[in-house]
Amino acid sequence: MPHGIEISGESCRGCVNCIKACPTEAMRVIRGRLKIIAERCIACGECFRICRHRAISLKESEWASIADDRSMLLVTDPALCTQFSWPPDPGILEDILRDIGFDPVFDDTALAFDL
User: Fold this and answer.
1) Which of the 8 DSSP states describes residue 80?
2) pTM for this one?
3) Are 32 and 91 in contact, with CB atoms under 8 Å apart?
């Protein structure tokens, strides 16, 4: 997965706020320079949001290609159906989610049980 993030070494002040903000620990200081571990980056933009020094920018071409992808995957939490007084059947909720554009919808109840 392309991470869509660029780091400006000249602007970086070494405050490590971006490293602390990264939910997947995809940022490291390697040989004195901030680096992104592409395999771990989920392109959430938290590092970009938190950087006060504007040392992190978004590669617009990468983000545009993500935005152009029209398929939306939704993995539901097993507790999702408990948040509503309706629908009585989880299948109805899945149909509603498909109707608003999620494709496909996966129920991870079996996976959660295994964990």
Assistant:
1) G
2) 0.51
3) no
- CB atoms closer than 10 angstroms to residue 59: 14
Token reading at 1: 């997965």
Cβ neighbours, 10 Å, residue 18:
24
> Cα(82)–Cα(74) distance, rounded to whole angstroms?
17
Could you report the per-residue pLDDT of 53-93, keeping only the tens digit for each? 999 988 766 556 556 666 666 666 666 667 776 656 767 77
For the segment 88-112, what is each residue's pLDDT rounded down to a tens digit?
A: 676 777 788 778 777 666 655 554 4
Where along the chain do its domains lie?
A: 5-68, 72-114
Instruction: Please count the other Cβ atoms lying within 10 Å of the Cβ belonging to residue 26.
Output: 22
Tell me how far apart the alpha carbons of residues 40 and 53 are, in angstroms, rounded to a whole number: 23
Level-2 CATH architecture, domain 5-68:
2-Layer Sandwich (3.30)
Report the C-alpha gap between 90 and 73 in whole angstroms.
17
User: Which three-class secondary structure state does DSSP give residue 3?
Assistant: coil
